[in-house]
Amino acid sequence: MELTTVTPPSNVPTFINLAVCIGIKMFARAAAISRTGMTNLVRYSHSHGGIPGENLPFSLNNRYKLTAIFVAFFGSGLGLPFFVLRHQLLKM
């Protein structure tokens, strides 16, 4: 890793400017690594794109099955607090 010299402006203390420069470099490096990783994921995912729903974990072909899956998924999430409340009230 190569260190570069940064000349701070005269109105900003040196340690603050140095910390900002180091922080920016860290975020830039992390962004570059993330960008490279995502590019590789897309490249090797064997997905050609252009087909709606190709990358979903369920099928969009049967509308009744899809409706049942959505009702079960969202119904369980929205109904869970009421079942927990009922359970707590019955424990008393």
UniProtKB/TrEMBL annotation:
Main location: mitochondrion
Compartment annotation: Mitochondrion inner membrane
CDD domains documented for this protein: Cyt_c_Oxidase_VIIc
Transmembrane segments: 66-85
Membrane topology according to the record: Single-pass membrane protein
SUPFAM superfamilies: Mitochondrial cytochrome c oxidase subunit VIIc (aka VIIIa) (SSF81427)
InterPro entries: COX7C/Cox8, COX7C/Cox8_sf
Biochemical pathway: Energy metabolism; oxidative phosphorylation
Family recorded in the similarity comment: Belongs to the cytochrome c oxidase VIIc family.
Protein name as catalogued: Cytochrome c oxidase subunit 7C, mitochondrial
